[in-house]
Design goal:
The protein has helices at 2-7, 9-29, 33-55, 60-84, 91-115, 122-140, 146-192, 212-220. The chain has 221 residues and is mainly alpha-helical.
């Protein structure tokens, strides 16, 4: 199976290019799809995080805070999904809700790490610092709109399709050249192999055995 995927990697890359371009163009044409993507992302992340997060948190106050945060995330996700089903959807709703979600996540993290002494590391620190900053930027500026996201996704889809398509082209070219090399090698081996010459078998001569009595008579004569 591993050799199969390695041999036909170019095929999966070509299919991936088609899917990426289709998604990018569809998202550009149907821009409300971003509302569905953002909404379902918040809902899924909230529902899948709630049980492990609450069970592994020892601080009771933080348990309540985390639960409230997840409930707010799910509500924000539902609002985005509902908004995506409208014909005259608001482009700013996603900006406001996602900005608030990012900022809330960063603020709760720093509250838990600084005031409640929850264990953390450098990666979590810088990640939540970025989320906190991103929340303010998204909420205040007007760049994070559905239209701008559609352009960003379209450009990323085209660039990704180009690089993956080029990789698929190289893999397919190598696949064809390897196949051609094998066929040429078989042809050369077949030409160099000597043909077998079949000769008629030589007749076998039977030995003539002279009986002893006949030999004696000849001697007497």
């Amino acid at each position: 199976m591993k050799n199969f995927f390695k041999k036909y990697l170019w095929l999966f890359e070509f299919i991936g290019v088609a899917i990426i371009l289709a998604v990018g163009i569809f998202a550009f044409v149907k821009q409300e799809v971003f509302l569905y993507i953002a909404g379902f992302s918040l809902i899924v992340l909230g529902l899948l995080r709630v049980v492990p997060l609450v069970k592994t948190t020892k601080d009771n106050l933080l348990k309540i805070i985390y639960t409230v945060e997840i409930v707010l995330n799910v509500i924000a996700g539902i609002l985005l999904v509902v908004e995506g089903g409208k014909d005259d959807y608001s482009e700013n709703l996603m900006r406001y809700l996602l900005g608030a979600v990012f900022y809330l996540r960063g603020a709760i993290y720093f509250y838990a790490a600084v005031l409640r002494k929850e264990s953390t590391d450098y990666l979590q620190f810088f990640t939540h610092l970025i989320l906190l900053t991103l929340g303010v930027v998204v909420f205040v500026t007007k760049f994070f709109t559905v239209t701008n996201l559609a352009w960003v996704v379209l450009v990323l889809a085209i660039l990704s399709a180009f690089f993956i398509g080029y990789s698929g082209y190289r893999n397919y070219r190598n696949f064809r050249y390897e196949r051609l090399a094998r066929e040429e090698t078989k042809k050369i081996i077949k030409e160099e192999k000597p043909e077998k010459v079949y000769e008629d078998p030589k007749p076998v001569k039977d030995d003539v055995i002279i009986p002893e009595e006949e030999e004696r008579e000849e001697l007497n004569v």
